[in-house]
Protein backbone atom coordinates (compact mmCIF):
# COMPACT_ATOMS: atom_id res chain seq x y z
CA UNK A 1 0.00 0.00 0.00
CA UNK A 2 2.74 2.36 0.94
CA UNK A 3 4.65 2.14 -2.29
CA UNK A 4 1.48 2.81 -4.24
CA UNK A 5 0.56 5.99 -2.47
CA UNK A 6 4.08 7.21 -2.63
CA UNK A 7 4.30 6.77 -6.35
CA UNK A 8 5.18 10.34 -6.98
CA UNK A 9 7.34 10.21 -10.03
CA UNK A 10 5.70 9.93 -13.40
CA UNK A 11 7.17 8.24 -16.42
CA UNK A 12 10.25 9.88 -17.83
CA UNK A 13 9.82 12.85 -20.10
CA UNK A 14 8.73 12.39 -23.67
CA UNK A 15 11.49 11.19 -25.87
CA UNK A 16 10.76 11.07 -29.57
CA UNK A 17 11.08 7.44 -30.51
CA UNK A 18 12.33 6.99 -34.01
CA UNK A 19 14.24 4.28 -35.73
CA UNK A 20 17.57 5.98 -35.35
CA UNK A 21 19.50 3.18 -36.91
CA UNK A 22 17.68 3.03 -40.21
CA UNK A 23 19.02 4.53 -43.34
CA UNK A 24 17.13 7.51 -44.68
CA UNK A 25 16.06 5.64 -47.79
CA UNK A 26 14.74 2.72 -45.79
CA UNK A 27 12.82 5.05 -43.51
CA UNK A 28 11.24 7.00 -46.31
CA UNK A 29 10.27 3.84 -48.15
CA UNK A 30 8.57 2.57 -45.03
CA UNK A 31 6.83 5.89 -44.56
CA UNK A 32 5.41 5.63 -48.03
CA UNK A 33 4.19 2.12 -47.41
CA UNK A 34 2.61 2.82 -44.05
CA UNK A 35 1.46 6.40 -43.90
CA UNK A 36 0.25 7.11 -40.36
CA UNK A 37 -1.72 3.87 -40.46
CA UNK A 38 0.85 2.10 -38.37
CA UNK A 39 0.68 4.66 -35.60
CA UNK A 40 -3.10 4.35 -35.51
CA UNK A 41 -2.89 0.57 -35.38
CA UNK A 42 -0.63 0.82 -32.34
CA UNK A 43 -3.42 2.40 -30.32
CA UNK A 44 -5.62 -0.68 -30.71
CA UNK A 45 -3.81 -2.30 -27.80
CA UNK A 46 -5.08 0.50 -25.59
CA UNK A 47 -8.74 -0.12 -26.42
CA UNK A 48 -9.51 -3.09 -24.11
CA UNK A 49 -8.01 -1.27 -21.15
CA UNK A 50 -9.93 1.87 -21.99
CA UNK A 51 -13.21 -0.02 -22.32
CA UNK A 52 -12.84 -1.66 -18.91
CA UNK A 53 -11.74 1.59 -17.26
CA UNK A 54 -14.68 3.49 -18.71
CA UNK A 55 -17.20 0.72 -18.05
CA UNK A 56 -16.21 -0.25 -14.54
CA UNK A 57 -14.49 2.77 -13.09
CA UNK A 58 -15.37 6.07 -14.73
CA UNK A 59 -19.01 5.46 -15.68
CA UNK A 60 -19.92 3.99 -12.26
CA UNK A 61 -18.43 7.08 -10.63
CA UNK A 62 -20.34 9.33 -13.01
CA UNK A 63 -23.49 7.32 -12.25
CA UNK A 64 -23.10 7.97 -8.52
CA UNK A 65 -22.63 11.69 -9.10
CA UNK A 66 -25.70 11.69 -11.35
CA UNK A 67 -27.70 9.75 -8.72
CA UNK A 68 -26.76 12.34 -6.15
CA UNK A 69 -27.83 15.28 -8.31
CA UNK A 70 -31.23 14.00 -9.42
CA UNK A 71 -33.66 14.96 -6.66
CA UNK A 72 -35.46 12.09 -5.01
CA UNK A 73 -38.86 13.80 -4.89
CA UNK A 74 -38.63 16.43 -7.59
CA UNK A 75 -36.65 14.41 -10.11
CA UNK A 76 -34.92 17.63 -11.15
CA UNK A 77 -31.22 18.35 -11.19
CA UNK A 78 -30.12 20.11 -8.04
CA UNK A 79 -28.69 19.78 -4.57
CA UNK A 80 -31.94 18.54 -3.03
CA UNK A 81 -30.40 15.19 -1.98
CA UNK A 82 -27.44 16.87 -0.33
CA UNK A 83 -29.71 19.20 1.62
CA UNK A 84 -31.64 16.14 2.77
CA UNK A 85 -28.45 14.31 3.76
CA UNK A 86 -27.15 17.22 5.78
CA UNK A 87 -30.44 17.88 7.57
CA UNK A 88 -31.53 14.31 8.40
CA UNK A 89 -30.27 13.30 11.87
CA UNK A 90 -29.43 9.70 10.83
CA UNK A 91 -27.21 10.83 7.95
CA UNK A 92 -25.69 13.68 9.94
CA UNK A 93 -24.86 11.18 12.63
CA UNK A 94 -23.37 8.77 10.06
CA UNK A 95 -21.03 11.42 8.74
CA UNK A 96 -20.08 12.54 12.25
CA UNK A 97 -19.53 8.96 13.48
CA UNK A 98 -17.47 8.03 10.43
CA UNK A 99 -15.24 11.07 10.71
CA UNK A 100 -14.95 10.66 14.48
CA UNK A 101 -14.05 6.95 14.44
CA UNK A 102 -11.62 7.48 11.56
CA UNK A 103 -9.96 10.45 13.19
CA UNK A 104 -9.59 8.92 16.66
CA UNK A 105 -8.41 5.56 15.34
CA UNK A 106 -5.92 7.31 13.05
CA UNK A 107 -4.57 9.46 15.89
CA UNK A 108 -4.22 6.58 18.36
CA UNK A 109 -2.76 4.46 15.57
CA UNK A 110 -0.17 7.07 14.66
CA UNK A 111 0.98 7.59 18.27
CA UNK A 112 1.36 3.87 18.96
CA UNK A 113 3.02 3.19 15.64
CA UNK A 114 5.35 6.17 15.96
CA UNK A 115 6.65 4.71 19.22
CA UNK A 116 6.73 1.21 17.74
CA UNK A 117 8.65 2.40 14.67
CA UNK A 118 11.04 4.34 16.88
CA UNK A 119 11.77 1.34 19.11
CA UNK A 120 11.99 -0.99 16.13
CA UNK A 121 14.49 1.37 14.53
CA UNK A 122 16.60 1.37 17.69
CA UNK A 123 16.49 -2.42 18.00
CA UNK A 124 18.92 -4.97 16.70
CA UNK A 125 18.33 -6.27 13.20
CA UNK A 126 17.01 -9.58 14.48
CA UNK A 127 14.34 -7.96 16.67
CA UNK A 128 13.41 -5.51 13.93
CA UNK A 129 13.00 -8.25 11.34
CA UNK A 130 10.87 -10.34 13.67
CA UNK A 131 8.69 -7.37 14.49
CA UNK A 132 8.30 -6.40 10.83
CA UNK A 133 7.30 -9.97 10.09
CA UNK A 134 4.53 -9.78 12.70
CA UNK A 135 3.39 -6.46 11.23
CA UNK A 136 3.28 -7.84 7.69
CA UNK A 137 1.35 -10.91 8.72
CA UNK A 138 -1.13 -9.12 10.95
CA UNK A 139 -1.77 -6.29 8.50
CA UNK A 140 -3.68 -8.95 6.53
CA UNK A 141 -5.84 -9.77 9.50
CA UNK A 142 -8.74 -7.43 8.85
CA UNK A 143 -12.32 -7.39 7.71
CA UNK A 144 -14.67 -10.23 8.62
CA UNK A 145 -12.00 -12.53 10.18
CA UNK A 146 -10.85 -9.69 12.43
CA UNK A 147 -14.41 -8.91 13.46
CA UNK A 148 -14.96 -12.57 14.31
CA UNK A 149 -11.77 -12.78 16.36
CA UNK A 150 -12.83 -9.76 18.39
CA UNK A 151 -16.26 -11.26 18.96
CA UNK A 152 -14.61 -14.36 20.43
CA UNK A 153 -12.37 -12.14 22.50
CA UNK A 154 -14.62 -9.33 23.65
CA UNK A 155 -18.14 -10.20 22.50
CA UNK A 156 -21.03 -10.92 24.86
CA UNK A 157 -19.58 -14.28 25.93
CA UNK A 158 -16.04 -13.54 24.82
CA UNK A 159 -12.96 -14.92 26.52
CA UNK A 160 -11.86 -11.55 27.90
CA UNK A 161 -15.41 -10.71 28.92
CA UNK A 162 -15.55 -13.91 31.00
CA UNK A 163 -12.14 -13.21 32.50
CA UNK A 164 -13.28 -9.69 33.33
CA UNK A 165 -16.31 -11.06 35.16
CA UNK A 166 -14.22 -13.63 37.02
CA UNK A 167 -11.53 -11.25 38.12
CA UNK A 168 -13.73 -8.22 38.55
CA UNK A 169 -12.32 -6.00 35.83
CA UNK A 170 -15.29 -3.79 34.91
CA UNK A 171 -13.67 -2.48 31.72
CA UNK A 172 -13.52 -5.99 30.25
CA UNK A 173 -16.73 -7.31 31.80
CA UNK A 174 -18.89 -4.41 30.65
CA UNK A 175 -17.17 -3.80 27.33
CA UNK A 176 -19.71 -3.67 24.52
CA UNK A 177 -18.22 -4.52 21.14
CA UNK A 178 -21.42 -3.71 19.29
CA UNK A 179 -21.22 0.07 19.73
CA UNK A 180 -19.17 2.95 18.41
CA UNK A 181 -16.54 2.38 21.10
CA UNK A 182 -16.34 -1.29 20.17
CA UNK A 183 -15.80 -0.41 16.53
CA UNK A 184 -13.16 2.08 17.58
CA UNK A 185 -11.16 -0.68 19.31
CA UNK A 186 -11.35 -2.79 16.14
CA UNK A 187 -10.35 0.10 13.90
CA UNK A 188 -7.37 0.96 16.09
CA UNK A 189 -6.27 -2.66 15.82
CA UNK A 190 -6.08 -2.64 12.03
CA UNK A 191 -4.50 0.82 11.89
CA UNK A 192 -1.42 -0.10 13.94
CA UNK A 193 0.35 -2.57 11.60
CA UNK A 194 -0.38 -0.45 8.54
CA UNK A 195 0.83 2.76 10.19
CA UNK A 196 4.01 1.18 11.56
CA UNK A 197 4.88 -0.31 8.17
CA UNK A 198 4.39 3.12 6.59
CA UNK A 199 6.42 4.97 9.24
CA UNK A 200 9.36 2.58 9.61
CA UNK A 201 11.16 3.60 6.40
CA UNK A 202 10.99 7.28 7.40
CA UNK A 203 13.16 6.62 10.44
CA UNK A 204 16.07 5.54 8.28
CA UNK A 205 16.35 9.20 7.24
CA UNK A 206 17.27 10.20 10.80
CA UNK A 207 21.05 10.44 11.00
CA UNK A 208 22.94 9.25 14.02
CA UNK A 209 25.14 12.33 13.80
CA UNK A 210 22.15 14.58 14.50
CA UNK A 211 21.80 13.10 17.95
CA UNK A 212 25.51 13.56 18.59
CA UNK A 213 25.36 17.14 17.31
CA UNK A 214 22.32 17.83 19.49
CA UNK A 215 24.07 16.42 22.57
CA UNK A 216 27.17 18.48 21.90
CA UNK A 217 24.97 21.56 21.61
CA UNK A 218 23.49 20.60 25.01
CA UNK A 219 20.02 19.69 23.81
CA UNK A 220 17.99 17.60 26.22
CA UNK A 221 16.51 14.31 24.95
CA UNK A 222 13.16 16.09 24.87
CA UNK A 223 14.61 18.85 22.68
CA UNK A 224 16.14 16.26 20.43
CA UNK A 225 12.83 14.48 19.91
CA UNK A 226 10.49 17.44 19.66
CA UNK A 227 12.73 19.90 17.84
CA UNK A 228 14.71 17.63 15.56
CA UNK A 229 13.23 14.18 14.99
CA UNK A 230 9.51 14.90 14.98
CA UNK A 231 9.71 18.05 12.80
CA UNK A 232 11.91 16.13 10.38
CA UNK A 233 9.46 13.25 10.21
CA UNK A 234 6.40 15.49 10.09
CA UNK A 235 5.67 15.07 6.35
CA UNK A 236 5.76 11.28 6.75
CA UNK A 237 3.66 11.42 9.91
CA UNK A 238 0.98 13.61 8.36
CA UNK A 239 1.00 11.60 5.12
CA UNK A 240 0.55 8.38 7.08
CA UNK A 241 -2.17 10.01 9.14
CA UNK A 242 -4.18 10.80 6.02
CA UNK A 243 -3.74 7.24 4.74
CA UNK A 244 -5.02 5.92 8.07
CA UNK A 245 -7.94 8.31 8.07
CA UNK A 246 -9.12 7.31 4.60
CA UNK A 247 -8.44 3.66 5.38
CA UNK A 248 -10.84 3.81 8.30
CA UNK A 249 -13.33 5.98 6.45
CA UNK A 250 -13.79 3.42 3.68
CA UNK A 251 -13.64 0.32 5.88
CA UNK A 252 -16.81 -1.68 5.45
CA UNK A 253 -16.32 -5.39 6.10
CA UNK A 254 -15.19 -5.05 9.72
CA UNK A 255 -18.05 -2.78 10.69
CA UNK A 256 -20.67 -4.74 8.77
CA UNK A 257 -19.61 -8.03 10.34
CA UNK A 258 -19.96 -6.57 13.84
CA UNK A 259 -23.01 -4.30 13.73
CA UNK A 260 -24.61 -5.22 10.36
CA UNK A 261 -26.53 -2.12 9.29
CA UNK A 262 -27.52 -1.16 12.82
CA UNK A 263 -25.10 1.68 13.30
CA UNK A 264 -24.92 5.13 11.77
CA UNK A 265 -21.73 4.85 9.73
CA UNK A 266 -21.22 6.27 6.24
CA UNK A 267 -20.19 3.10 4.35
CA UNK A 268 -22.95 1.07 6.03
CA UNK A 269 -25.63 3.65 5.23
CA UNK A 270 -24.48 4.04 1.62
CA UNK A 271 -24.54 0.31 1.01
CA UNK A 272 -27.93 -0.17 2.63
CA UNK A 273 -29.40 2.39 0.22
CA UNK A 274 -28.40 0.33 -2.81
CA UNK A 275 -28.68 -3.16 -1.48
CA UNK A 276 -30.90 -4.18 1.27
CA UNK A 277 -34.21 -5.23 2.57
CA UNK A 278 -35.68 -1.79 2.08
CA UNK A 279 -36.33 -0.14 -1.23
CA UNK A 280 -33.37 1.08 -3.24
CA UNK A 281 -32.81 4.79 -2.75
CA UNK A 282 -30.15 5.78 -5.24
CA UNK A 283 -30.69 9.49 -4.69
CA UNK A 284 -29.84 9.52 -0.98
CA UNK A 285 -27.24 6.78 -1.40
CA UNK A 286 -25.62 8.70 -4.23
CA UNK A 287 -25.44 11.88 -2.17
CA UNK A 288 -23.91 9.99 0.77
CA UNK A 289 -21.46 8.31 -1.60
CA UNK A 290 -20.41 11.67 -3.02
CA UNK A 291 -19.79 12.95 0.52
CA UNK A 292 -17.56 9.92 1.15
CA UNK A 293 -15.80 10.38 -2.20
CA UNK A 294 -15.05 14.03 -1.40
CA UNK A 295 -13.62 13.10 2.02
CA UNK A 296 -11.46 10.39 0.40
CA UNK A 297 -10.23 12.66 -2.37
CA UNK A 298 -9.26 15.35 0.13
CA UNK A 299 -7.29 12.71 2.07
CA UNK A 300 -5.53 11.54 -1.08
CA UNK A 301 -4.60 15.10 -2.04
CA UNK A 302 -3.24 15.75 1.46
CA UNK A 303 -1.24 12.54 1.30
CA UNK A 304 0.17 13.36 -2.14
CA UNK A 305 1.20 16.80 -0.94
CA UNK A 306 3.03 15.43 2.09
CA UNK A 307 4.57 12.53 0.19
CA UNK A 308 6.09 15.00 -2.25
CA UNK A 309 7.35 17.16 0.60
CA UNK A 310 8.80 14.14 2.37
CA UNK A 311 10.72 13.03 -0.71
CA UNK A 312 11.90 16.60 -1.35
CA UNK A 313 13.29 16.80 2.17
CA UNK A 314 15.24 13.60 1.57
CA UNK A 315 16.82 14.95 -1.58
CA UNK A 316 18.15 18.03 0.17
CA UNK A 317 19.91 15.84 2.71
CA UNK B 1 22.34 2.72 2.66
CA UNK B 2 24.15 -0.54 3.27
CA UNK B 3 27.38 1.24 4.02
CA UNK B 4 25.56 3.35 6.58
CA UNK B 5 24.14 0.37 8.46
CA UNK B 6 27.57 -1.18 8.39
CA UNK B 7 29.08 1.97 9.88
CA UNK B 8 26.51 1.97 12.69
CA UNK B 9 27.23 -1.67 13.37
CA UNK B 10 30.95 -1.03 13.41
CA UNK B 11 30.51 1.84 15.85
CA UNK B 12 28.53 -0.30 18.25
CA UNK B 13 29.55 -3.92 17.86
CA UNK B 14 27.07 -6.43 19.24
CA UNK B 15 24.45 -3.73 19.50
CA UNK B 16 21.82 -4.83 21.98
CA UNK B 17 18.14 -3.99 21.80
CA UNK B 18 17.30 -1.54 24.61
CA UNK B 19 15.05 -2.96 27.32
CA UNK B 20 12.36 -0.32 26.77
CA UNK B 21 12.25 -1.23 23.09
CA UNK B 22 11.97 -4.91 23.92
CA UNK B 23 9.07 -4.32 26.28
CA UNK B 24 7.19 -1.95 23.99
CA UNK B 25 7.61 -4.05 20.84
CA UNK B 26 6.73 -7.15 22.84
CA UNK B 27 3.47 -5.61 24.02
CA UNK B 28 2.52 -4.33 20.55
CA UNK B 29 3.44 -7.64 18.94
CA UNK B 30 1.44 -9.57 21.51
CA UNK B 31 -1.52 -7.22 21.10
CA UNK B 32 -1.46 -7.84 17.35
CA UNK B 33 -1.15 -11.61 17.72
CA UNK B 34 -3.71 -12.17 20.49
CA UNK B 35 -6.92 -11.99 18.39
CA UNK B 36 -5.63 -14.57 15.93
CA UNK B 37 -4.11 -16.83 18.58
CA UNK B 38 -7.36 -16.76 20.53
CA UNK B 39 -9.24 -17.79 17.40
CA UNK B 40 -6.74 -20.57 16.77
CA UNK B 41 -7.11 -21.97 20.31
CA UNK B 42 -10.89 -21.52 20.14
CA UNK B 43 -11.04 -23.59 16.94
CA UNK B 44 -9.16 -26.47 18.60
CA UNK B 45 -11.30 -26.90 21.71
CA UNK B 46 -14.81 -28.06 22.44
CA UNK B 47 -15.69 -25.15 24.70
CA UNK B 48 -14.18 -22.07 26.23
CA UNK B 49 -16.54 -20.88 28.91
CA UNK B 50 -14.01 -20.87 31.72
CA UNK B 51 -10.63 -19.23 32.11
CA UNK B 52 -9.03 -22.05 30.16
CA UNK B 53 -10.56 -23.90 27.20
CA UNK B 54 -11.42 -27.55 27.64
CA UNK B 55 -11.59 -30.65 25.44
CA UNK B 56 -9.04 -30.60 22.63
CA UNK B 57 -10.65 -31.52 19.32
CA UNK B 58 -10.15 -31.36 15.57
CA UNK B 59 -13.90 -31.66 15.08
CA UNK B 60 -14.28 -28.13 13.69
CA UNK B 61 -11.71 -28.77 10.99
CA UNK B 62 -13.14 -32.18 10.15
CA UNK B 63 -16.55 -30.58 9.83
CA UNK B 64 -15.18 -27.76 7.68
CA UNK B 65 -13.17 -29.95 5.33
CA UNK B 66 -16.12 -32.27 4.72
CA UNK B 67 -18.45 -29.35 4.04
CA UNK B 68 -19.02 -29.09 0.29
CA UNK B 69 -20.24 -25.48 0.57
CA UNK B 70 -16.85 -24.58 1.99
CA UNK B 71 -15.02 -26.16 -0.96
CA UNK B 72 -17.36 -24.47 -3.42
CA UNK B 73 -16.72 -21.09 -1.85
CA UNK B 74 -12.96 -21.74 -1.91
CA UNK B 75 -13.26 -22.69 -5.57
CA UNK B 76 -15.22 -19.55 -6.39
CA UNK B 77 -12.70 -17.42 -4.52
CA UNK B 78 -9.82 -18.97 -6.44
CA UNK B 79 -11.62 -18.43 -9.76
CA UNK B 80 -12.22 -14.80 -8.84
CA UNK B 81 -8.57 -14.37 -7.81
CA UNK B 82 -7.02 -16.01 -10.84
CA UNK B 83 -9.37 -14.75 -13.55
CA UNK B 84 -9.59 -11.12 -12.45
CA UNK B 85 -5.86 -10.78 -11.82
CA UNK B 86 -5.15 -12.42 -15.20
CA UNK B 87 -7.55 -10.05 -16.98
CA UNK B 88 -5.94 -7.04 -15.33
CA UNK B 89 -2.44 -8.20 -16.24
CA UNK B 90 -3.38 -8.71 -19.91
CA UNK B 91 -5.21 -5.36 -20.13
CA UNK B 92 -2.32 -3.50 -18.53
CA UNK B 93 0.38 -5.22 -20.58
CA UNK B 94 -1.45 -4.30 -23.78
CA UNK B 95 -2.03 -0.73 -22.64
CA UNK B 96 1.54 -0.37 -21.46
CA UNK B 97 2.73 -1.38 -24.92
CA UNK B 98 1.03 1.73 -26.26
CA UNK B 99 2.61 3.86 -23.53
CA UNK B 100 6.08 2.45 -24.07
CA UNK B 101 6.17 2.13 -27.85
CA UNK B 102 3.54 4.44 -29.35
CA UNK B 103 2.73 7.44 -27.23
CA UNK B 104 4.42 8.14 -23.93
CA UNK B 105 2.04 10.93 -23.10
CA UNK B 106 -0.64 8.36 -22.28
CA UNK B 107 1.47 7.39 -19.26
CA UNK B 108 0.12 10.23 -17.17
CA UNK B 109 -3.46 9.34 -18.00
CA UNK B 110 -2.76 5.68 -17.17
CA UNK B 111 -1.28 6.56 -13.84
CA UNK B 112 -4.21 8.76 -12.95
CA UNK B 113 -6.94 6.24 -13.79
CA UNK B 114 -5.01 3.38 -12.22
CA UNK B 115 -4.69 5.21 -8.91
CA UNK B 116 -8.39 6.14 -8.64
CA UNK B 117 -9.44 2.70 -7.31
CA UNK B 118 -6.77 2.94 -4.65
CA UNK B 119 -8.23 6.17 -3.38
CA UNK B 120 -11.85 5.03 -3.57
CA UNK B 121 -11.71 1.43 -2.37
CA UNK B 122 -14.47 -1.16 -2.36
CA UNK B 123 -17.66 0.46 -1.13
CA UNK B 124 -17.82 3.24 -3.71
CA UNK B 125 -16.67 0.97 -6.51
CA UNK B 126 -19.26 -1.74 -5.86
CA UNK B 127 -22.11 0.70 -5.32
CA UNK B 128 -21.31 2.62 -8.50
CA UNK B 129 -21.27 -0.55 -10.56
CA UNK B 130 -24.53 -1.81 -9.04
CA UNK B 131 -26.22 1.52 -9.60
CA UNK B 132 -25.06 1.71 -13.21
CA UNK B 133 -25.88 -1.79 -14.41
CA UNK B 134 -28.62 -3.30 -12.24
CA UNK B 135 -31.89 -3.53 -14.12
CA UNK B 136 -30.52 -2.46 -17.47
CA UNK B 137 -31.60 -5.81 -18.86
CA UNK B 138 -28.42 -6.21 -20.88
CA UNK B 139 -25.71 -8.80 -20.44
CA UNK B 140 -23.87 -6.20 -18.38
CA UNK B 141 -26.48 -6.50 -15.64
CA UNK B 142 -25.33 -10.08 -15.13
CA UNK B 143 -23.88 -10.26 -11.62
CA UNK B 144 -20.82 -12.20 -12.78
CA UNK B 145 -19.90 -9.54 -15.31
CA UNK B 146 -20.23 -6.88 -12.64
CA UNK B 147 -18.18 -8.89 -10.17
CA UNK B 148 -15.27 -9.63 -12.50
CA UNK B 149 -15.33 -6.03 -13.73
CA UNK B 150 -15.17 -4.76 -10.17
CA UNK B 151 -12.28 -7.04 -9.17
CA UNK B 152 -10.38 -6.10 -12.31
CA UNK B 153 -10.60 -2.47 -11.23
CA UNK B 154 -9.87 -3.23 -7.56
CA UNK B 155 -6.46 -4.80 -8.28
CA UNK B 156 -5.54 -2.27 -10.97
CA UNK B 157 -3.35 0.00 -8.78
CA UNK B 158 -1.23 -2.85 -7.43
CA UNK B 159 -0.56 -4.55 -10.75
CA UNK B 160 -0.07 -1.27 -12.58
CA UNK B 161 2.53 -0.27 -10.04
CA UNK B 162 4.34 -3.59 -10.42
CA UNK B 163 4.37 -3.50 -14.21
CA UNK B 164 5.42 0.14 -14.35
CA UNK B 165 8.30 -0.36 -11.95
CA UNK B 166 9.43 -3.44 -13.86
CA UNK B 167 9.30 -1.61 -17.21
CA UNK B 168 11.23 1.34 -15.80
CA UNK B 169 13.82 -0.96 -14.28
CA UNK B 170 14.74 -2.64 -17.56
CA UNK B 171 14.37 0.51 -19.70
CA UNK B 172 11.82 -1.06 -22.03
CA UNK B 173 12.07 1.73 -24.57
CA UNK B 174 15.75 1.09 -25.19
CA UNK B 175 15.15 -2.62 -25.61
CA UNK B 176 12.43 -2.02 -28.18
CA UNK B 177 14.61 0.42 -30.12
CA UNK B 178 17.46 -2.05 -30.12
CA UNK B 179 15.20 -4.84 -31.36
CA UNK B 180 13.82 -2.53 -34.02
CA UNK B 181 17.30 -1.81 -35.29
CA UNK B 182 17.76 -5.52 -35.71
CA UNK B 183 14.68 -5.61 -37.88
CA UNK B 184 12.10 -6.71 -35.36
CA UNK B 185 8.62 -5.18 -35.28
CA UNK B 186 7.74 -3.13 -32.26
CA UNK B 187 4.96 -5.30 -30.96
CA UNK B 188 7.02 -8.41 -31.51
CA UNK B 189 9.89 -6.79 -29.67
CA UNK B 190 7.57 -5.96 -26.79
CA UNK B 191 6.24 -9.52 -26.56
CA UNK B 192 9.49 -11.39 -27.18
CA UNK B 193 12.07 -9.12 -25.59
CA UNK B 194 10.41 -6.91 -23.01
CA UNK B 195 7.82 -9.25 -21.49
CA UNK B 196 10.19 -12.10 -20.59
CA UNK B 197 12.29 -9.54 -18.74
CA UNK B 198 9.49 -8.21 -16.54
CA UNK B 199 7.82 -11.50 -15.57
CA UNK B 200 9.50 -11.66 -12.18
CA UNK B 201 8.61 -8.03 -11.49
CA UNK B 202 4.95 -8.69 -12.26
CA UNK B 203 4.91 -11.81 -10.12
CA UNK B 204 5.23 -10.01 -6.80
CA UNK B 205 2.51 -7.46 -7.49
CA UNK B 206 0.23 -10.18 -8.87
CA UNK B 207 0.58 -12.23 -5.71
CA UNK B 208 -0.21 -9.14 -3.67
CA UNK B 209 -3.29 -8.62 -5.81
CA UNK B 210 -4.32 -12.25 -5.32
CA UNK B 211 -4.22 -11.83 -1.57
CA UNK B 212 -6.32 -8.66 -1.86
CA UNK B 213 -9.01 -10.45 -3.89
CA UNK B 214 -8.84 -13.41 -1.50
CA UNK B 215 -9.45 -11.10 1.45
CA UNK B 216 -12.22 -9.10 -0.16
CA UNK B 217 -15.67 -9.07 1.37
CA UNK B 218 -17.20 -5.80 0.18
CA UNK B 219 -17.36 -6.41 -3.55
CA UNK B 220 -18.44 -10.03 -3.25
CA UNK B 221 -21.12 -9.23 -0.69
CA UNK B 222 -22.49 -6.12 -2.38
CA UNK B 223 -22.47 -7.32 -5.96
CA UNK B 224 -23.01 -11.07 -5.78
CA UNK B 225 -24.07 -11.71 -2.17
CA UNK B 226 -25.39 -15.19 -1.64
CA UNK B 227 -25.61 -15.82 -5.40
CA UNK B 228 -21.87 -16.34 -5.64
CA UNK B 229 -20.51 -16.84 -2.14
CA UNK B 230 -16.78 -16.35 -1.84
CA UNK B 231 -14.91 -17.50 1.25
CA UNK B 232 -15.40 -14.22 3.13
CA UNK B 233 -19.15 -14.17 2.49
CA UNK B 234 -19.25 -17.85 3.51
CA UNK B 235 -17.56 -16.92 6.77
CA UNK B 236 -19.94 -14.05 7.41
CA UNK B 237 -22.95 -16.29 6.74
CA UNK B 238 -21.67 -18.88 9.22
CA UNK B 239 -20.65 -16.51 11.99
CA UNK B 240 -24.00 -16.41 13.75
CA UNK B 241 -24.67 -20.11 13.16
CA UNK B 242 -21.56 -21.84 14.45
CA UNK B 243 -18.66 -20.12 16.14
CA UNK B 244 -16.58 -23.32 16.18
CA UNK B 245 -16.82 -23.75 12.43
CA UNK B 246 -16.27 -20.02 11.84
CA UNK B 247 -13.11 -20.01 13.92
CA UNK B 248 -11.74 -22.82 11.75
CA UNK B 249 -12.60 -20.79 8.61
CA UNK B 250 -10.78 -17.76 10.03
CA UNK B 251 -7.69 -19.87 10.71
CA UNK B 252 -7.73 -21.32 7.19
CA UNK B 253 -8.15 -17.88 5.58
CA UNK B 254 -5.36 -16.43 7.67
CA UNK B 255 -2.96 -19.27 6.92
CA UNK B 256 -3.57 -19.01 3.16
CA UNK B 257 -3.02 -15.25 3.11
CA UNK B 258 -0.01 -15.56 5.42
CA UNK B 259 1.55 -18.13 3.07
CA UNK B 260 1.08 -15.81 0.08
CA UNK B 261 2.51 -12.89 2.08
CA UNK B 262 5.52 -14.98 3.07
CA UNK B 263 6.21 -15.78 -0.60
CA UNK B 264 5.86 -12.10 -1.53
CA UNK B 265 8.28 -11.04 1.22
CA UNK B 266 10.73 -13.74 0.18
CA UNK B 267 10.61 -12.66 -3.47
CA UNK B 268 11.00 -8.99 -2.54
CA UNK B 269 13.92 -9.85 -0.31
CA UNK B 270 15.78 -11.77 -3.02
CA UNK B 271 15.12 -9.08 -5.65
CA UNK B 272 16.48 -6.45 -3.25
CA UNK B 273 19.60 -8.48 -2.69
CA UNK B 274 20.20 -8.69 -6.42
| Rg of chain B computed from alpha carbons, rounded to a whole number of angstroms | 24 Å
List the quaternary state of the chains: heterodimer
CATH fold naming of chain A: MetI-like fold
Number of helices of chain A: 16
Task: Describe the protein in words.
- Chain A is mainly alpha-helical.
- Chain A has one domain (80-311): MetI-like fold.
- Chain A contains 16 helices and no strands.
- Chain A has helices at 2-5, 24-33, 37-42, 47-69, 80-87, 89-122, 125-138, 143-154, 159-167, 170-173, 180-203, 208-216, 221-250, 253-259, 266-274, 282-316.
- In chain A, α7 packs across α11 (180-203).
- Chain A is globular and about 70 Å long.
- With 274 residues, chain B is an all-alpha fold.
- Chain B is 80% helix and 2% strand.
- Chain B contains twelve helices and two strands.
- Chain B has a two-stranded antiparallel sheet with strand order 1-2.
- In chain B, α3 packs across α12 (243-273), α5 runs antiparallel to α6 and α5 (106-133) packs across α10.
- The two termini of chain B are 15 Å apart.
- The model of chain B is unreliable at 1-14 (pLDDT under 50).
- Classes of the chains: A mainly alpha (317), B mainly alpha (274).
- The interface between A and B is large, with 95 and 105 residues.
Short note summarizing the structure:
The complex is a heterodimer of chains A (317) and B (274). Chain A contains 16 helices and no strands.
Descriptive key words:
heterodimer, A: about 325 residues, MetI-like fold, disordered N terminus, B: mainly alpha, two-stranded antiparallel sheet, 12 helices, about 80% helix
Amino acid sequence: MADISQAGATLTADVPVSGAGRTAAHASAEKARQPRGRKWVGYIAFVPFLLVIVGYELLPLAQLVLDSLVGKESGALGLENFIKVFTTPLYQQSIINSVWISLVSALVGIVVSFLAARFAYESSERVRNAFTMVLNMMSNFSGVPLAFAFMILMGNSGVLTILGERWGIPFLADFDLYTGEGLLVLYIYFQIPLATLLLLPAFSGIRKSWREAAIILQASPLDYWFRIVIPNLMPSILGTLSVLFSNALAAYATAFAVVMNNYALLPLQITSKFKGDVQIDAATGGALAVVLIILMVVCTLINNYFTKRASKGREII
Amino acid sequence: MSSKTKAVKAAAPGKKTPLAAKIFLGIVGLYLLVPFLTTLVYSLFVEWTDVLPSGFTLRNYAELFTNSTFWFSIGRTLILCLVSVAITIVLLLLAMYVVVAVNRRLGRFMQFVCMIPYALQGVILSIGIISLYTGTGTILSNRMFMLFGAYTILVLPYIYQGIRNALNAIDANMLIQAAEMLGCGRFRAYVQVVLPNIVSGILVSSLLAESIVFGDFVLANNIAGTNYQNIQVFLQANMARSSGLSSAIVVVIFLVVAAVTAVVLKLQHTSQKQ
